[in-house]
Amino acid sequence: MSLANTKTAYGAVTRSLHWLTALGILIMIPLGWIAHLSPWGTEAELATKAQLFSLHKTIGVALFFIALIRILWALTQPKPAPLHPERKAENFAAETVHWLLYSTLVIVPLSGWVEHAATEGFAPILWPFGQDLPFVPNSDRVAEAAASVHFLAQWLLVASLALHVAGALKHAVIDRDGTLARMLRGASAGSPAAGHRVFRPLVLAVAAWAALIGGGAAAGMFASESAPETPKLEAAQSDWQVTEGTLGISLVQMGKEIEGSFADWTAEIAFEPRETPGKAGDVTVQIAIPTLTLGSVSKQALGADFFDAEAHPTATFRAEILRGEAGYEAQGTLTLKGAEVPVTLPFELTLDGDTATMQGSTTLDRRDYAIGDSMGDATQLSFEVQVDVALTATRN
């Protein structure tokens, strides 16, 4: 049994890669649809959905490498001649379908992999590598574009596969020739003198891809959805002017830490340093919720089940600044998504003349603010959300 192809027969390597690819497709496509359609209203359902997607992603990445190996091997091998060279239209269609199959076997899993790498926290690939990809940032926009390509390309894969199977059945049932026997047993059939036309089928396959992507773009599949309107915060009337600072949050989703920050917030500060315990001032912080960036899950985080930025575009933290035995802390109330919850923020303070630098952090429980109520399992989405504040301010 020859490992390599001849001009009239497929070798063992080509046939093994062909049937291994077919098995991967038969598993991956229905598994992906089942994962997509499975409910996630309860903790158990969400866990099952994540497991299904993890399995689908893992098989998809494996199929991507199998497809690459298959293509690289095919480039080194002669392609067995067509059995009916006189049937030009049929051979043209077969060559076009082969180009579409090869391209979709690469693009479908690759686009899904890019979508995964651009997102954070949900349904990891079931091996240590491949969670991230070079040059693929954690980005909603990248993830959505890759998801659109994945969605469109899967239908081209299904259509190409259906045409390929239909052609194989025609050869087996109607023509009763050696086409299927060549791929099943490596049987030799056909005339070595017959050749394949490559250029025009390739052009038609490229045109099919252009029509597919162009149609998706025309349908708005690559357009970014509008974000909630960002409220205009009033300028803070403060004794201290914040010159630079960050307001960040971090949490754990599906075992992976996700970090983010709010781009727009103001701080109204009245403060007098003191050496003894007692009140040292007041602070009011206004936060524009729609300015949150949280990696690739920013849009999800701003949705109705989480921050609900459209209905609750701002959050407010009002607190007294107190000097204690161990240092300073802000004790007050955080109003977020209609809930008012007591919060204490310990912080370190460094004074250099009229310049103050502070760093502080505290931990919130997202359940206090009805954030992510549909995700009641802390292993899926941590209840604790760490808030980190750092700023530099100068006295007016």
UniProtKB/TrEMBL annotation:
Cofactor: heme b
Gene3D superfamilies: Lipid/polyisoprenoid-binding, YceI-like, Transmembrane di-heme cytochromes, Chain C
SUPFAM superfamilies listed in its UniProt record: Transmembrane di-heme cytochromes, YceI-like
Record localization: Cell membrane
UniProt keyword annotation of Cell cycle present: no
Main localization of the protein described in the UniProt heading: membrane
Domain Lipid/polyisoprenoid-binding YceI-like: 239-394
TM regions (residue ranges): 17-35, 55-75, 96-114, 152-173, 202-223
Keyword ATP-binding: no
Pfam families cross-referenced by the UniProt entry: Ni_hydr_CYTB (PF01292), YceI (PF04264)
Superkingdom: Bacteria
Topology relative to the membrane: Multi-pass membrane protein
Keywords attached to this entry: Cell membrane, Electron transport, Heme, Iron, Membrane, Metal-binding, Transmembrane, Transmembrane helix, Transport
Family under the similarity heading: Belongs to the cytochrome b561 family.
Protein name: Cytochrome b/b6 domain-containing protein
